[in-house]
Amino acid sequence: MKANQILAIATILGALAVILGAFGAHGLNDKISPEKLETFKLGVSYQYYHIAALLACGIISKIGNSQRLLSYAALLFIIGIFCFSGSLYLLSTRELTGLGFLTPVLGPMTPIGGLFLIGAWVMMGIAVLKIK
Questions:
Q1: Measured distance CA(84)–CA(102) in Å, rounded
Q2: Which residues lie below 8 Å from residue 62, measured CB to CB, with a gap of 6+?
Q3: Where exactly are the structural domains of the chain?
Q4: pLDDT digits (tens, 9 = 90+) for 40-75
Protein backbone atom coordinates (compact mmCIF):
# COMPACT_ATOMS: atom_id res chain seq x y z
CA MET A 1 0.00 0.00 0.00
CA LYS A 2 1.43 3.37 -0.98
CA ALA A 3 1.59 6.38 1.34
CA ASN A 4 -1.11 8.27 -0.55
CA GLN A 5 -3.44 5.27 -0.37
CA ILE A 6 -2.88 4.98 3.37
CA LEU A 7 -3.63 8.68 3.82
CA ALA A 8 -6.73 8.49 1.63
CA ILE A 9 -8.11 5.52 3.57
CA ALA A 10 -7.39 7.34 6.84
CA THR A 11 -9.38 10.37 5.67
CA ILE A 12 -12.33 8.18 4.68
CA LEU A 13 -12.26 6.37 8.01
CA GLY A 14 -11.98 9.77 9.73
CA ALA A 15 -15.10 11.05 8.00
CA LEU A 16 -16.86 7.81 8.92
CA ALA A 17 -15.83 8.27 12.57
CA VAL A 18 -17.38 11.75 12.61
CA ILE A 19 -20.59 10.41 11.06
CA LEU A 20 -20.76 7.49 13.50
CA GLY A 21 -19.96 9.74 16.45
CA ALA A 22 -22.75 12.13 15.49
CA PHE A 23 -25.12 9.23 14.91
CA GLY A 24 -24.29 7.82 18.33
CA ALA A 25 -24.78 11.17 20.05
CA HIS A 26 -27.96 12.21 18.27
CA GLY A 27 -29.52 9.14 16.67
CA LEU A 28 -28.97 6.47 19.30
CA ASN A 29 -29.31 8.54 22.46
CA ASP A 30 -32.85 7.41 23.28
CA LYS A 31 -32.85 4.13 21.36
CA ILE A 32 -30.27 2.03 23.23
CA SER A 33 -29.30 1.70 26.88
CA PRO A 34 -26.67 4.02 28.36
CA GLU A 35 -24.29 1.05 28.69
CA LYS A 36 -24.64 0.18 25.01
CA LEU A 37 -24.25 3.83 24.06
CA GLU A 38 -20.96 3.88 25.99
CA THR A 39 -19.85 0.78 24.07
CA PHE A 40 -20.72 2.52 20.79
CA LYS A 41 -18.78 5.63 21.88
CA LEU A 42 -15.80 3.43 22.80
CA GLY A 43 -15.81 2.11 19.23
CA VAL A 44 -15.78 5.67 17.90
CA SER A 45 -12.95 6.68 20.25
CA TYR A 46 -10.78 3.74 19.27
CA GLN A 47 -11.46 4.44 15.61
CA TYR A 48 -10.24 8.01 16.07
CA TYR A 49 -7.09 6.93 17.94
CA HIS A 50 -6.13 4.48 15.26
CA ILE A 51 -6.93 6.83 12.42
CA ALA A 52 -4.29 9.13 13.90
CA ALA A 53 -1.85 6.21 13.84
CA LEU A 54 -2.87 5.41 10.27
CA LEU A 55 -2.18 9.02 9.28
CA ALA A 56 1.20 8.75 10.97
CA CYS A 57 1.96 5.59 8.96
CA GLY A 58 1.20 7.45 5.74
CA ILE A 59 3.23 10.51 6.65
CA ILE A 60 6.21 8.56 7.96
CA SER A 61 6.08 6.36 4.88
CA LYS A 62 6.56 9.45 2.72
CA ILE A 63 9.73 10.50 4.54
CA GLY A 64 11.27 7.22 5.71
CA ASN A 65 12.77 4.13 4.18
CA SER A 66 10.45 1.62 5.89
CA GLN A 67 7.55 1.86 3.46
CA ARG A 68 6.98 -1.90 3.34
CA LEU A 69 6.71 -2.27 7.12
CA LEU A 70 4.54 0.83 7.38
CA SER A 71 2.30 -0.55 4.66
CA TYR A 72 1.84 -3.74 6.70
CA ALA A 73 1.22 -1.69 9.84
CA ALA A 74 -1.39 0.37 8.00
CA LEU A 75 -3.13 -2.77 6.81
CA LEU A 76 -3.19 -4.13 10.36
CA PHE A 77 -4.62 -0.81 11.62
CA ILE A 78 -7.38 -0.92 8.99
CA ILE A 79 -8.31 -4.53 9.78
CA GLY A 80 -8.13 -3.77 13.50
CA ILE A 81 -10.43 -0.75 13.18
CA PHE A 82 -13.01 -2.75 11.27
CA CYS A 83 -12.84 -5.73 13.63
CA PHE A 84 -12.59 -3.84 16.94
CA SER A 85 -14.70 -0.75 16.40
CA GLY A 86 -16.99 -2.41 13.87
CA SER A 87 -17.84 -5.23 16.26
CA LEU A 88 -18.55 -2.72 19.04
CA TYR A 89 -20.89 -0.77 16.74
CA LEU A 90 -22.77 -3.91 15.77
CA LEU A 91 -22.85 -5.39 19.28
CA SER A 92 -24.19 -2.19 20.83
CA THR A 93 -26.94 -1.80 18.22
CA ARG A 94 -27.83 -5.46 17.69
CA GLU A 95 -31.39 -5.08 19.01
CA LEU A 96 -32.05 -2.18 16.62
CA THR A 97 -30.47 -3.87 13.63
CA GLY A 98 -31.81 -7.35 14.28
CA LEU A 99 -28.28 -8.74 14.23
CA GLY A 100 -28.44 -10.32 17.67
CA PHE A 101 -27.94 -13.72 16.07
CA LEU A 102 -24.39 -12.62 15.16
CA THR A 103 -23.38 -12.10 18.80
CA PRO A 104 -21.41 -15.39 18.97
CA VAL A 105 -19.33 -14.20 16.00
CA LEU A 106 -19.12 -10.50 16.89
CA GLY A 107 -18.11 -11.07 20.53
CA PRO A 108 -14.75 -12.66 19.63
CA MET A 109 -14.14 -10.09 16.86
CA THR A 110 -13.50 -7.33 19.41
CA PRO A 111 -10.42 -8.92 21.02
CA ILE A 112 -9.23 -10.18 17.63
CA GLY A 113 -9.43 -6.60 16.38
CA GLY A 114 -7.49 -5.53 19.45
CA LEU A 115 -4.75 -8.00 18.58
CA PHE A 116 -4.56 -6.56 15.06
CA LEU A 117 -4.26 -3.06 16.55
CA ILE A 118 -1.49 -4.18 18.92
CA GLY A 119 0.31 -5.84 16.01
CA ALA A 120 -0.01 -2.65 14.00
CA TRP A 121 1.57 -0.57 16.76
CA VAL A 122 4.43 -3.04 17.09
CA MET A 123 4.97 -3.11 13.32
CA MET A 124 4.90 0.68 13.19
CA GLY A 125 7.42 0.85 16.03
CA ILE A 126 9.77 -1.52 14.22
CA ALA A 127 9.39 0.51 11.03
CA VAL A 128 10.23 3.74 12.83
CA LEU A 129 13.32 2.18 14.42
CA LYS A 130 14.54 1.13 10.97
CA ILE A 131 14.38 4.65 9.54
CA LYS A 132 17.86 5.95 8.78
A1: 15
A2: 3
A3: 3-129
A4: 999 999 999 999 999 999 999 988 778 899 999 999
